[in-house]
Amino acid sequence: MLDALKKAFSGNDEHRTAPAGKKNDISREKSAVLYEKAKQFFPGGVNSPVRAFKSVYGTPLFIERGDGCFLWDADGNQFIDFCCSWGPLILGHNHPKIRERVTKTLEKGLSFGAPTALENELAELILKNNKYLEKIRFVSSGTEAVMSAIRLARGYTGRDKIIKFEGCYHGHSDSLLVKAGSGLVTFGETSSAGVPKAFAAETIVLPLDNRDAVESAFSQFSGQIAAIIIEGIPANNGLLIQEPAYVQFLRDITKQHGALLIFDEVITGFRLGFEGAAAHYGIQPDIITYGKIIGGGMPVGAYGASAELMACISPDGAVYQAGTLSGNPVAMAAGIAQLTELKGSGFYKALNAKASEFVEAIRRYIAAKNYKVKLFHVGSIFWFAFTDQEHIRTASAIDHGSMEHYKVFHRELLNRGIYLGPSGYEVGFISAAHSKIELEKAKRAIFESLDELFRHNKPAA
Length: 461
Ligand SMILES: *Cc1c(COP(=O)(O)O)cnc(C)c1O
Prior knowledge:
Distance between the termini: 34 Å
Radius of gyration: 22 Å
Bound molecules: pyridoxal-5'-phosphate
CATH topology of the largest domain: Aspartate Aminotransferase, domain 2
Oligomer: single chain
Number of helices: 14
CATH superfamily of the largest domain: Type I PLP-dependent aspartate aminotransferase-like (Major domain)
Number of strands: 17
Strand order of the largest sheet: 4-13-12-11-10-5-9-7
Protein backbone atom coordinates (compact mmCIF):
# COMPACT_ATOMS: atom_id res chain seq x y z
CA MET A 1 0.00 0.00 0.00
CA LEU A 2 2.95 2.31 0.57
CA ASP A 3 4.05 1.48 -2.92
CA ALA A 4 0.57 2.30 -4.13
CA LEU A 5 0.84 5.64 -2.46
CA LYS A 6 4.02 6.48 -4.32
CA LYS A 7 2.69 5.20 -7.60
CA ALA A 8 -0.64 6.94 -7.23
CA PHE A 9 0.85 10.22 -8.33
CA SER A 10 2.82 8.94 -11.29
CA GLY A 11 -0.32 8.67 -13.43
CA ASN A 12 1.40 7.38 -16.55
CA ASP A 13 0.39 4.29 -18.41
CA GLU A 14 3.54 3.93 -20.51
CA HIS A 15 4.75 0.78 -18.82
CA ARG A 16 1.67 -1.04 -20.03
CA THR A 17 3.09 -1.23 -23.51
CA ALA A 18 6.52 -2.28 -22.24
CA PRO A 19 7.72 -5.87 -22.67
CA ALA A 20 4.21 -7.22 -22.09
CA GLY A 21 2.25 -8.60 -25.02
CA LYS A 22 3.72 -12.08 -24.81
CA LYS A 23 2.11 -14.75 -26.96
CA ASN A 24 0.62 -16.63 -24.05
CA ASP A 25 -0.71 -13.56 -22.22
CA ILE A 26 -4.24 -14.04 -20.91
CA SER A 27 -7.02 -12.14 -22.63
CA ARG A 28 -7.88 -8.87 -20.93
CA GLU A 29 -10.20 -7.47 -23.56
CA LYS A 30 -13.26 -7.05 -21.38
CA SER A 31 -11.24 -5.85 -18.41
CA ALA A 32 -9.57 -3.27 -20.66
CA VAL A 33 -12.95 -1.95 -21.85
CA LEU A 34 -14.22 -1.74 -18.26
CA TYR A 35 -11.02 -0.02 -17.18
CA GLU A 36 -11.32 2.61 -19.93
CA LYS A 37 -14.85 3.30 -18.77
CA ALA A 38 -13.82 3.39 -15.10
CA LYS A 39 -11.19 6.01 -15.91
CA GLN A 40 -14.02 8.34 -16.92
CA PHE A 41 -15.53 7.97 -13.45
CA PHE A 42 -12.72 7.54 -10.96
CA PRO A 43 -9.25 9.00 -10.50
CA GLY A 44 -6.96 6.44 -12.09
CA GLY A 45 -10.03 4.32 -12.84
CA VAL A 46 -10.12 2.87 -9.33
CA ASN A 47 -11.44 3.44 -5.84
CA SER A 48 -8.18 2.43 -4.14
CA PRO A 49 -4.83 3.14 -5.82
CA VAL A 50 -3.02 -0.21 -5.77
CA ARG A 51 -5.85 -1.76 -7.79
CA ALA A 52 -4.73 0.24 -10.83
CA PHE A 53 -1.87 -2.27 -11.51
CA LYS A 54 0.65 0.59 -11.80
CA SER A 55 3.47 -1.61 -10.48
CA VAL A 56 2.88 -4.63 -12.73
CA TYR A 57 2.21 -5.33 -16.40
CA GLY A 58 -1.12 -4.95 -18.07
CA THR A 59 -4.50 -3.51 -17.39
CA PRO A 60 -6.18 -4.24 -14.04
CA LEU A 61 -8.39 -7.31 -14.03
CA PHE A 62 -12.04 -6.64 -13.33
CA ILE A 63 -13.35 -9.42 -11.14
CA GLU A 64 -16.72 -10.97 -11.74
CA ARG A 65 -16.98 -13.51 -8.98
CA GLY A 66 -15.12 -15.59 -6.44
CA ASP A 67 -15.70 -18.98 -4.93
CA GLY A 68 -13.47 -20.87 -2.50
CA CYS A 69 -9.88 -20.06 -3.45
CA PHE A 70 -10.87 -19.09 -7.01
CA LEU A 71 -11.49 -15.81 -8.76
CA TRP A 72 -12.98 -15.25 -12.22
CA ASP A 73 -12.41 -12.04 -14.16
CA ALA A 74 -14.61 -10.35 -16.75
CA ASP A 75 -12.85 -12.23 -19.58
CA GLY A 76 -13.63 -15.58 -17.96
CA ASN A 77 -10.04 -16.22 -16.80
CA GLN A 78 -9.89 -18.33 -13.66
CA PHE A 79 -7.26 -17.79 -10.95
CA ILE A 80 -6.20 -19.32 -7.68
CA ASP A 81 -6.33 -16.22 -5.49
CA PHE A 82 -3.57 -15.41 -2.99
CA CYS A 83 -4.65 -11.81 -2.47
CA CYS A 84 -7.93 -12.77 -0.77
CA SER A 85 -9.24 -9.20 -0.89
CA TRP A 86 -5.99 -8.11 0.83
CA GLY A 87 -6.50 -10.47 3.75
CA PRO A 88 -10.13 -10.49 4.92
CA LEU A 89 -11.08 -13.74 3.18
CA ILE A 90 -9.40 -16.24 5.47
CA LEU A 91 -12.18 -18.73 4.64
CA GLY A 92 -11.98 -18.03 0.92
CA HIS A 93 -14.59 -16.44 -1.32
CA ASN A 94 -18.33 -16.86 -0.96
CA HIS A 95 -18.17 -19.11 2.08
CA PRO A 96 -21.59 -20.80 2.48
CA LYS A 97 -21.88 -20.09 6.23
CA ILE A 98 -21.15 -16.39 5.77
CA ARG A 99 -23.45 -16.12 2.76
CA GLU A 100 -26.31 -17.77 4.68
CA ARG A 101 -25.95 -15.61 7.75
CA VAL A 102 -25.69 -12.42 5.68
CA THR A 103 -28.71 -13.34 3.55
CA LYS A 104 -30.82 -14.15 6.60
CA THR A 105 -29.84 -10.84 8.21
CA LEU A 106 -30.37 -8.57 5.22
CA GLU A 107 -33.93 -9.80 4.82
CA LYS A 108 -34.73 -7.88 8.02
CA GLY A 109 -33.35 -4.55 6.81
CA LEU A 110 -29.90 -3.15 6.11
CA SER A 111 -29.32 -0.50 8.75
CA PHE A 112 -31.10 1.00 11.75
CA GLY A 113 -28.66 3.41 13.37
CA ALA A 114 -29.72 1.86 16.67
CA PRO A 115 -28.23 -0.99 18.71
CA THR A 116 -28.86 -4.57 17.59
CA ALA A 117 -28.23 -7.92 19.28
CA LEU A 118 -25.78 -8.75 16.49
CA GLU A 119 -23.27 -6.20 17.82
CA ASN A 120 -23.41 -7.91 21.22
CA GLU A 121 -22.96 -11.28 19.59
CA LEU A 122 -19.83 -10.31 17.65
CA ALA A 123 -18.36 -8.44 20.62
CA GLU A 124 -18.96 -11.37 22.96
CA LEU A 125 -17.43 -13.79 20.49
CA ILE A 126 -14.30 -11.64 20.35
CA LEU A 127 -13.95 -10.60 23.99
CA LYS A 128 -14.67 -14.06 25.45
CA ASN A 129 -11.89 -15.51 23.34
CA ASN A 130 -9.28 -12.78 23.63
CA LYS A 131 -7.54 -12.16 26.92
CA TYR A 132 -5.86 -9.01 25.63
CA LEU A 133 -9.07 -6.95 25.46
CA GLU A 134 -11.84 -5.97 27.84
CA LYS A 135 -13.93 -3.64 25.71
CA ILE A 136 -14.24 -2.94 22.03
CA ARG A 137 -15.81 -0.38 19.67
CA PHE A 138 -16.84 -1.24 16.10
CA VAL A 139 -16.13 1.14 13.22
CA SER A 140 -16.25 0.65 9.45
CA SER A 141 -12.62 0.36 8.28
CA GLY A 142 -9.09 -0.22 9.44
CA THR A 143 -8.24 3.42 8.81
CA GLU A 144 -11.04 4.52 11.10
CA ALA A 145 -10.00 2.03 13.79
CA VAL A 146 -6.42 3.29 13.85
CA MET A 147 -7.41 6.96 13.68
CA SER A 148 -9.67 6.42 16.68
CA ALA A 149 -7.03 4.45 18.59
CA ILE A 150 -4.56 7.32 18.15
CA ARG A 151 -7.15 9.80 19.42
CA LEU A 152 -7.80 7.57 22.42
CA ALA A 153 -4.08 7.37 23.18
CA ARG A 154 -3.76 11.15 22.99
CA GLY A 155 -6.91 11.70 25.02
CA TYR A 156 -5.85 9.27 27.72
CA THR A 157 -2.25 10.46 28.09
CA GLY A 158 -2.86 14.15 27.42
CA ARG A 159 0.14 14.07 25.05
CA ASP A 160 0.19 14.80 21.31
CA LYS A 161 3.14 13.06 19.71
CA ILE A 162 3.13 9.53 18.36
CA ILE A 163 5.88 7.27 17.09
CA LYS A 164 5.35 5.20 13.97
CA PHE A 165 7.79 3.11 11.96
CA GLU A 166 9.03 3.43 8.42
CA GLY A 167 7.57 0.47 6.52
CA CYS A 168 4.35 0.21 8.54
CA TYR A 169 1.02 1.21 7.02
CA HIS A 170 -1.82 2.25 9.27
CA GLY A 171 -4.46 3.51 6.85
CA HIS A 172 -4.81 6.94 5.30
CA SER A 173 -5.61 9.26 8.22
CA ASP A 174 -3.59 12.50 8.32
CA SER A 175 -1.37 11.70 11.31
CA LEU A 176 -0.19 8.49 9.70
CA LEU A 177 0.46 9.51 6.10
CA VAL A 178 3.92 10.45 7.17
CA LYS A 179 7.31 9.08 6.18
CA ALA A 180 10.75 9.40 7.72
CA GLY A 181 12.59 12.67 7.31
CA SER A 182 16.38 12.73 7.09
CA GLY A 183 18.22 11.83 10.27
CA LEU A 184 17.55 9.08 12.76
CA VAL A 185 15.02 10.87 14.94
CA THR A 186 13.13 13.59 13.15
CA PHE A 187 9.61 14.68 12.61
CA GLY A 188 8.04 12.93 9.69
CA GLU A 189 7.42 14.43 6.31
CA THR A 190 3.97 14.06 4.83
CA SER A 191 3.70 11.24 2.32
CA SER A 192 0.62 12.72 0.68
CA ALA A 193 -0.26 16.16 -0.55
CA GLY A 194 -2.99 17.67 1.55
CA VAL A 195 -1.62 16.60 4.92
CA PRO A 196 -0.78 19.74 6.93
CA LYS A 197 2.85 20.00 8.07
CA ALA A 198 1.53 20.64 11.56
CA PHE A 199 0.05 17.11 11.61
CA ALA A 200 3.29 15.55 10.43
CA ALA A 201 5.09 17.44 13.18
CA GLU A 202 3.23 15.36 15.76
CA THR A 203 4.37 12.09 14.20
CA ILE A 204 7.88 10.83 14.77
CA VAL A 205 8.89 8.26 12.15
CA LEU A 206 11.62 5.79 13.11
CA PRO A 207 13.31 2.83 11.41
CA LEU A 208 12.13 -0.60 12.59
CA ASP A 209 14.48 -2.89 14.50
CA ASN A 210 16.48 -0.02 15.95
CA ARG A 211 16.41 0.43 19.73
CA ASP A 212 18.68 3.48 19.74
CA ALA A 213 16.22 5.40 17.59
CA VAL A 214 13.38 4.71 20.02
CA GLU A 215 15.49 5.59 23.06
CA SER A 216 16.64 8.85 21.46
CA ALA A 217 13.06 9.79 20.60
CA PHE A 218 11.95 9.29 24.20
CA SER A 219 14.80 11.35 25.57
CA GLN A 220 14.40 14.10 22.96
CA PHE A 221 10.62 14.34 23.43
CA SER A 222 10.41 13.45 27.08
CA GLY A 223 6.84 13.54 28.42
CA GLN A 224 5.38 14.33 25.00
CA ILE A 225 4.90 10.92 23.42
CA ALA A 226 1.39 9.49 23.69
CA ALA A 227 2.01 6.17 21.97
CA ILE A 228 4.06 3.94 19.77
CA ILE A 229 2.09 2.29 17.00
CA ILE A 230 3.39 -0.78 15.18
CA GLU A 231 1.78 -3.39 12.95
CA GLY A 232 1.45 -6.74 14.72
CA ILE A 233 3.85 -7.97 12.08
CA PRO A 234 4.62 -5.31 9.48
CA ALA A 235 3.04 -6.72 6.31
CA ASN A 236 2.20 -3.74 4.10
CA ASN A 237 5.65 -3.00 2.74
CA GLY A 238 7.00 -6.47 2.36
CA LEU A 239 6.84 -8.81 5.33
CA LEU A 240 9.20 -7.26 7.88
CA ILE A 241 9.27 -9.91 10.59
CA GLN A 242 10.49 -8.36 13.85
CA GLU A 243 12.38 -10.11 16.61
CA PRO A 244 10.12 -10.79 19.61
CA ALA A 245 12.73 -9.24 21.92
CA TYR A 246 12.48 -5.96 19.99
CA VAL A 247 8.70 -5.89 20.35
CA GLN A 248 9.13 -6.62 24.08
CA PHE A 249 11.56 -3.69 24.20
CA LEU A 250 8.83 -1.46 22.75
CA ARG A 251 6.47 -2.73 25.44
CA ASP A 252 8.99 -1.99 28.19
CA ILE A 253 10.08 1.45 27.03
CA THR A 254 6.52 2.72 26.51
CA LYS A 255 5.57 1.57 30.00
CA GLN A 256 8.66 3.21 31.45
CA HIS A 257 7.75 6.55 29.86
CA GLY A 258 4.00 6.49 30.52
CA ALA A 259 3.25 6.08 26.81
CA LEU A 260 0.87 3.53 25.29
CA LEU A 261 1.71 0.70 22.92
CA ILE A 262 -0.74 0.24 20.05
CA PHE A 263 -0.71 -2.97 18.02
CA ASP A 264 -2.25 -2.32 14.63
CA GLU A 265 -3.61 -5.79 14.00
CA VAL A 266 -5.68 -4.96 10.95
CA ILE A 267 -3.79 -7.73 9.10
CA THR A 268 -2.53 -9.93 11.95
CA GLY A 269 -5.75 -9.92 14.00
CA PHE A 270 -7.55 -13.28 13.58
CA ARG A 271 -4.82 -14.17 11.04
CA LEU A 272 -1.90 -15.38 13.16
CA GLY A 273 -4.40 -16.91 15.53
CA PHE A 274 -7.70 -15.83 17.08
CA GLU A 275 -5.80 -13.51 19.44
CA GLY A 276 -3.49 -12.27 16.70
CA ALA A 277 -0.01 -10.86 17.25
CA ALA A 278 -0.60 -10.13 20.95
CA ALA A 279 -0.77 -13.87 21.62
CA HIS A 280 1.92 -14.59 19.00
CA TYR A 281 4.38 -12.61 21.15
CA GLY A 282 2.61 -13.05 24.49
CA ILE A 283 2.70 -9.26 24.86
CA GLN A 284 -0.16 -7.16 26.22
CA PRO A 285 -0.49 -3.98 24.15
CA ASP A 286 -2.56 -1.06 25.50
CA ILE A 287 -4.78 -0.70 22.42
CA ILE A 288 -5.40 -3.13 19.57
CA THR A 289 -6.93 -2.25 16.20
CA TYR A 290 -8.68 -4.65 13.85
CA GLY A 291 -10.05 -4.63 10.33
CA LYS A 292 -9.98 -6.97 7.34
CA ILE A 293 -10.80 -10.48 8.73
CA ILE A 294 -13.07 -9.17 11.49
CA GLY A 295 -15.81 -8.28 8.96
CA GLY A 296 -15.82 -11.50 6.95
CA GLY A 297 -15.50 -9.47 3.73
CA MET A 298 -17.79 -6.63 4.82
CA PRO A 299 -16.50 -3.19 5.92
CA VAL A 300 -15.79 -3.56 9.65
CA GLY A 301 -12.98 -2.27 11.80
CA ALA A 302 -12.63 -2.17 15.57
CA TYR A 303 -10.42 -0.96 18.36
CA GLY A 304 -10.25 -2.39 21.83
CA ALA A 305 -8.41 -1.99 25.11
CA SER A 306 -8.86 -2.33 28.86
CA ALA A 307 -12.15 -1.20 30.40
CA GLU A 308 -10.25 1.68 32.01
CA LEU A 309 -8.95 3.00 28.69
CA MET A 310 -12.20 2.43 26.83
CA ALA A 311 -14.01 4.46 29.51
CA CYS A 312 -12.41 7.52 27.87
CA ILE A 313 -14.54 6.99 24.75
CA SER A 314 -17.79 8.90 24.31
CA PRO A 315 -20.49 8.71 25.62
CA ASP A 316 -18.67 7.46 28.78
CA GLY A 317 -15.67 9.72 28.34
CA ALA A 318 -14.31 12.80 26.63
CA VAL A 319 -12.75 11.21 23.52
CA TYR A 320 -15.32 11.61 20.75
CA GLN A 321 -15.82 8.90 18.16
CA ALA A 322 -18.98 7.93 16.25
CA GLY A 323 -20.27 6.31 13.04
CA THR A 324 -23.59 6.29 11.18
CA LEU A 325 -23.04 2.74 9.92
CA SER A 326 -20.90 1.49 12.83
CA GLY A 327 -21.98 -1.99 13.92
CA ASN A 328 -24.02 -2.37 10.74
CA PRO A 329 -26.14 -5.53 11.15
CA VAL A 330 -25.23 -7.13 7.82
CA ALA A 331 -21.54 -6.51 8.42
CA MET A 332 -21.83 -7.86 11.97
CA ALA A 333 -23.52 -10.98 10.62
CA ALA A 334 -20.64 -11.61 8.23
CA GLY A 335 -18.12 -11.10 11.05
CA ILE A 336 -19.99 -13.44 13.39
CA ALA A 337 -20.20 -16.19 10.77
CA GLN A 338 -16.51 -15.90 9.89
CA LEU A 339 -15.12 -15.64 13.42
CA THR A 340 -17.29 -18.56 14.56
CA GLU A 341 -15.47 -20.74 12.05
CA LEU A 342 -12.06 -19.45 13.13
CA LYS A 343 -12.75 -20.14 16.80
CA GLY A 344 -13.28 -23.83 16.01
CA SER A 345 -10.57 -25.97 17.54
CA GLY A 346 -7.58 -26.63 15.35
CA PHE A 347 -8.47 -24.04 12.70
CA TYR A 348 -5.19 -22.11 12.86
CA LYS A 349 -3.07 -25.18 13.43
CA ALA A 350 -4.36 -26.70 10.21
CA LEU A 351 -4.14 -23.48 8.21
CA ASN A 352 -0.64 -22.63 9.37
CA ALA A 353 0.60 -26.19 8.82
CA LYS A 354 -0.75 -26.12 5.27
CA ALA A 355 0.94 -22.76 4.65
CA SER A 356 4.27 -23.97 6.07
CA GLU A 357 4.25 -27.02 3.86
CA PHE A 358 3.56 -24.85 0.80
CA VAL A 359 6.32 -22.41 1.71
CA GLU A 360 8.86 -25.13 2.52
CA ALA A 361 8.32 -26.84 -0.84
CA ILE A 362 8.92 -23.57 -2.67
CA ARG A 363 11.99 -22.82 -0.56
CA ARG A 364 13.43 -26.23 -1.41
CA TYR A 365 12.93 -25.53 -5.10
CA ILE A 366 14.56 -22.11 -4.84
CA ALA A 367 17.53 -23.60 -2.97
CA ALA A 368 17.95 -26.43 -5.46
CA LYS A 369 18.00 -23.95 -8.35
CA ASN A 370 20.07 -21.41 -6.47
CA TYR A 371 17.69 -18.62 -7.46
CA LYS A 372 18.11 -15.20 -5.90
CA VAL A 373 14.72 -15.01 -4.25
CA LYS A 374 13.53 -15.53 -0.67
CA LEU A 375 10.11 -16.55 0.51
CA PHE A 376 9.43 -14.96 3.89
CA HIS A 377 6.57 -16.40 5.87
CA VAL A 378 4.64 -16.27 9.12
CA GLY A 379 1.39 -18.13 9.80
CA SER A 380 -0.59 -17.99 6.55
CA ILE A 381 1.12 -14.81 5.28
CA PHE A 382 3.96 -15.01 2.75
CA TRP A 383 6.13 -12.62 0.73
CA PHE A 384 8.49 -13.18 -2.19
CA ALA A 385 11.54 -10.92 -2.09
CA PHE A 386 14.10 -11.01 -4.88
CA THR A 387 17.09 -10.84 -2.59
CA ASP A 388 19.70 -13.07 -0.98
CA GLN A 389 19.41 -11.52 2.47
CA GLU A 390 18.44 -14.00 5.16
CA HIS A 391 16.29 -11.45 7.01
CA ILE A 392 14.61 -8.22 6.00
CA ARG A 393 13.50 -6.32 9.07
CA THR A 394 13.50 -2.71 7.90
CA ALA A 395 11.97 -0.86 4.97
CA SER A 396 15.40 0.37 3.89
CA ALA A 397 16.66 -3.21 3.48
CA ILE A 398 14.26 -3.78 0.59
CA ASP A 399 15.92 -3.53 -2.81
CA HIS A 400 13.57 -1.37 -4.85
CA GLY A 401 15.29 -2.34 -8.09
CA SER A 402 14.31 -5.98 -7.50
CA MET A 403 10.68 -5.02 -8.07
CA GLU A 404 11.38 -5.32 -11.81
CA HIS A 405 11.67 -9.06 -11.16
CA TYR A 406 8.34 -9.05 -9.39
CA LYS A 407 6.66 -7.49 -12.43
CA VAL A 408 7.78 -10.38 -14.62
CA PHE A 409 6.94 -12.94 -11.94
CA HIS A 410 3.46 -11.47 -11.53
CA ARG A 411 2.72 -11.62 -15.24
CA GLU A 412 4.02 -15.18 -15.56
CA LEU A 413 1.84 -16.21 -12.61
CA LEU A 414 -1.28 -14.57 -14.04
CA ASN A 415 -0.64 -16.40 -17.30
CA ARG A 416 -0.60 -19.62 -15.29
CA GLY A 417 -3.79 -18.90 -13.37
CA ILE A 418 -2.30 -17.54 -10.14
CA TYR A 419 -3.42 -14.18 -8.74
CA LEU A 420 -1.04 -12.33 -6.41
CA GLY A 421 -1.33 -8.71 -5.27
CA PRO A 422 -0.29 -6.34 -8.08
CA SER A 423 2.83 -5.05 -6.33
CA GLY A 424 6.01 -6.65 -5.06
CA TYR A 425 5.60 -4.87 -1.74
CA GLU A 426 2.36 -6.71 -1.01
CA VAL A 427 2.18 -9.98 0.89
CA GLY A 428 0.14 -13.04 -0.11
CA PHE A 429 -2.42 -14.88 1.99
CA ILE A 430 -3.40 -18.53 2.16
CA SER A 431 -7.00 -19.27 3.12
CA ALA A 432 -8.72 -22.33 4.53
CA ALA A 433 -10.26 -22.75 1.06
CA HIS A 434 -6.88 -23.44 -0.59
CA SER A 435 -6.90 -27.23 -0.80
CA LYS A 436 -3.81 -29.38 -1.26
CA ILE A 437 -4.71 -29.85 -4.92
CA GLU A 438 -4.81 -26.13 -5.65
CA LEU A 439 -1.67 -25.47 -3.63
CA GLU A 440 0.05 -28.19 -5.65
CA LYS A 441 -1.04 -26.46 -8.88
CA ALA A 442 0.07 -23.11 -7.53
CA LYS A 443 3.50 -24.49 -6.61
CA ARG A 444 4.03 -25.77 -10.15
CA ALA A 445 3.01 -22.41 -11.57
CA ILE A 446 5.40 -20.67 -9.19
CA PHE A 447 8.27 -23.01 -10.18
CA GLU A 448 7.65 -22.42 -13.89
CA SER A 449 7.35 -18.66 -13.40
CA LEU A 450 10.64 -18.55 -11.48
CA ASP A 451 12.30 -20.65 -14.20
CA GLU A 452 11.00 -18.26 -16.84
CA LEU A 453 12.15 -15.23 -14.85
CA PHE A 454 15.64 -16.56 -14.15
CA ARG A 455 16.12 -17.91 -17.66
CA HIS A 456 16.73 -14.28 -18.59
CA ASN A 457 18.22 -13.20 -15.28
CA LYS A 458 20.81 -15.81 -14.47
CA PRO A 459 21.44 -16.34 -10.77
CA ALA A 460 24.64 -14.81 -9.50
CA ALA A 461 27.52 -17.31 -9.59
C1 LIG B 1 -5.30 -2.42 5.60
C2 LIG B 1 -4.67 -1.82 6.79
C3 LIG B 1 -5.14 -0.62 7.36
C4 LIG B 1 -6.24 0.19 6.73
O1 LIG B 1 -7.45 -0.51 6.70
P1 LIG B 1 -8.56 -0.03 5.64
O2 LIG B 1 -9.72 -0.93 5.96
O3 LIG B 1 -7.98 -0.21 4.29
O4 LIG B 1 -8.86 1.39 5.95
C5 LIG B 1 -4.56 -0.19 8.54
N1 LIG B 1 -3.57 -0.86 9.11
C6 LIG B 1 -3.09 -2.01 8.59
C7 LIG B 1 -2.01 -2.74 9.31
C8 LIG B 1 -3.60 -2.51 7.41
O5 LIG B 1 -3.10 -3.62 6.89
